[in-house]
Amino acid sequence: MADEAGKKRDESWLSKLLAGDHEAFAEFIDKYKEMVFLCCRTLGLKEDEAEDVASETFLAAYKGLSRYKGRAQLHTWLWAIAYRQAVSYLRKNKRTWELLDEQQGQGYSKEQTPPAAAQSNEYEKIVWDAVGKLPRIWAVVVILHYREEKMISEIAKIMRIRENTAKTYLFRARNKLKEILAPVFGEGFDVD
What does the pLDDT read at residue 6? Predict the structure, then answer.
């Protein structure tokens, strides 16, 4: 019964949002601002740059709400806008994406990992720090797949790439993560 009431409330909110209700849009921004900033930071934008891109993202979303047809979930639709805005910003400002996986001396040592960290926050931090060492495009795919729980087809739509390309990026990212994390967790460590 509670789920049904929540679903009706969400549908009502979405209807108001699509109708241009300003309060509903303010809620929309509050609900999704962290996700938009995550996308921006994943692509390597500094805090002030991420704020600019987030503003542009929400402006583009506001202008595009009339075209939202519900084929994708709202947060997937917004992530796609944020991703395109961030990439556009990077292109306009002629910034290059650094391939962080080539940096030397950035690995972890076994001393940094507590012996019983397998399921702890420290474990997650180490893994997500390792994701930050991946090439940006691979890191985006990993974050979308594991943190945002997107399917390969959704990732391909968001990033405007083929599904096979998204699968390849995810495969390569997993292999690189195994390589990065092997000194910390041992050779038998698996990323899945």
Answer: 55
* Number of structural domains in the chain: 2
Does residue 109 share a domain with residue 82?
no
Q: Residue 160 domain-assigned?
A: yes
> For 23-77, what is each residue's pLDDT tens digit?
988 999 999 999 999 888 888 888 889 999 999 999 999 888 888 887 888 888 8
Dihedral over Cα of 118, 119, 124, 125: its sign? negative
- CATH at residue 61: 1.10.1740.10
**80-83 LR contacts (CB < 8 Å, sep 24+):** 80/157, 80/158, 80/159, 81/57, 82/35, 82/36, 82/39, 82/40, 82/53, 82/54, 82/57, 83/39, 83/43, 83/140, 83/158, 83/159
- The widest CA-to-CA distance across the chain, in whole angstroms, is 56
Q: Please name the amino acid found at residue 62.
A: Y
* pTM for this entry: 0.62
What is the DSSP-derived secondary structure letter of residue 187? T
- Which conformational region is residue 105 in: left (phi greater than 0), alpha (psi within -120 to 50 degrees), or beta? left
Task: Indicate if 85 and 123 belong to the same structural domain.
Answer: no
Question: 68, 18 in Cβ contact below 8 A?
Answer: yes
